[in-house]
């Protein structure tokens, strides 16, 4: 029988993570590193794992989801998030865990594994993001620029900040390849303002890694020879397929799985099938 639990984990500098766990603590441990940055863990993530034999840990990163302070930018960098994941593993008393993530979550998962390889069983990654200003600019091409959106989100006028959040959401929805939901209401837009402010904080700083820093993390991972599975949709416009090829070339032992007819949507039927196949029990 699956057991669901949640708790807050103080991690310093005024930040407190919200962590949900699913499954039995004695089962194979898997941590879920969500994307964004700033998105928080979706309730639908449970669909991607098998709670009959997996113990799934879903932390909301600093400032994201139900972590507090909501949207907090202070002491919020990739280095902090890597340290938070390790603090969480130790708090749960887990010797090692499988590390999974998608989009920005795949990038952060790799940064964590490079810093703490002894804590990682393997990496299963979807739609990996390679942090660089050129890639971010390419994503926003055809719509408002990141700088324009970030300035709008910082407007003291709440209506203008919500308008910037709506513009970002519309562009992101159009690029994702997923079914476009109904437009967010005012309450949802206020939450999106916090999310996108946090995302802009990271993207304007090249996610506190940049391509050179991420390249160095890949080199450390290659030296450790950790098992890595890269899963990527052929039609992904948010994180183009070139990203997967870039990472795969730097991790000679990695396995690259292409998902045909799929964009950036983690819940696309074909993507779910590839994901669950990659997460079968390890021998």
Enter the CATH topology name of the largest domain.
Answer: Rossmann fold
Shape: globular
Number of strands: 8
Element-level helix/strand string: EEEEHEHEHHHHHEHEH
Structural class: alpha/beta
**Going by CATH, what is the homologous superfamily of the largest domain?**
Alpha/Beta hydrolase fold, catalytic domain
First and last CA, distance: 23 Å
Describe the structure.
The protein has 283 residues and is α/β, with parallel strands linked by helices. The chain has two domains: 199 residues, Alpha/Beta hydrolase fold, catalytic domain (Rossmann fold); 68 residues, no CATH class. The chain is 41% helix and 19% strand. It contains nine helices and eight strands. It has an eight-stranded mixed β-sheet, sandwiched between helices. Strand 5, helix 2 and strand 6 form a beta-alpha-beta unit. Helix 1 packs across helix 2, helix 4 runs antiparallel to helix 5 and helix 5 packs across helix 6. The longest helix has 19 residues. It is globular and about 55 Å long. The two termini are 23 Å apart. The mean pLDDT is 95.
Put the structure in a nutshell.
With 283 residues, the chain is an alpha/beta fold. The protein folds into 2 domains: 4-131 and 208-278, Rossmann fold (3-Layer(aba) Sandwich); 136-203, no CATH class.
Features:
eight-stranded mixed beta sheet; 283 residues; single chain; alpha/beta; 8 strands; Rossmann fold; 2 domains
Task: Give the secondary structure arrangement, pairings included.
Blueprint: E1 4-12, E2 15-22, E3 28-33, E4 54-59, H1 78-92, E5 97-102, H2 104-115, E6 120-126, H3 133-140, H4 146-153, H5 158-176, H6 186-203, H7 210-224, E7 228-233, H8 241-250, E8 255-259, H9 269-278
Parallel strand pairs: 3-4, 3-5, 5-6, 6-7, 7-8
Antiparallel strand pairs: 1-2, 2-4
Helix pairs in contact: 1-2, 2-7, 4-5, 4-6, 5-6
């Amino acid at each position: 029988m699956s057991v669901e639990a949640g708790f807050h984990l103080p991690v310093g500098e005024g930040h407190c993570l919200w962590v949900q766990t699913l499954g039995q603590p004695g089962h194979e441990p898997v941590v879920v590193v969500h994307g964004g940055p700033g998105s928080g863990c979706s309730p639908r993530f449970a669909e991607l794992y098998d709670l009959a034999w997996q113990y799934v840990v879903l932390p909301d990163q600093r400032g994201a989801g139900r972590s507090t302070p909501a949207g907090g930018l202070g002491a919020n960098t990739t280095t902090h998030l890597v340290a938070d994941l390790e603090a969480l593993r130790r708090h749960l008393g887990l010797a090692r865990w499988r590390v999974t993530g998608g989009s920005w979550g795949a990038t952060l998962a790799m940064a964590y594994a490079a810093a703490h390889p002894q804590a990682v069983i393997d990496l299963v990654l979807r739609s990996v993001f390679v942090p660089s200003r050129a890639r971010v600019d390419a994503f926003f091409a055809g719509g408002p620029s990141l700088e324009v959106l970030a300035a709008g989100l910082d407007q003291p006028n709440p209506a203008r900040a919500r308008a910037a959040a709506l513009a970002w959401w519309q562009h992101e929805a159009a690029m994702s390849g997923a079914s476009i939901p109904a437009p967010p209401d005012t309450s949802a837009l206020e939450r999106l303002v916090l999310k996108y402010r946090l995302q802009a904080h990271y993207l304007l700083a090249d996610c506190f890694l940049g391509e050179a820093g991420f390249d160095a993390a890949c080199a450390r991972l290659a030296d450790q020879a950790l098992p890595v599975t890269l899963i990527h949709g052929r039609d992904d416009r948010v994180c183009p397929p070139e990203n997967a090829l870039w990472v795969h070339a730097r991790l000679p032992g990695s396995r690259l799985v292409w998902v045909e007819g799929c964009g950036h949507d983690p819940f696309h039927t074909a993507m779910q099938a590839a994901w669950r196949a990659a997460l079968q029990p390890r021998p």
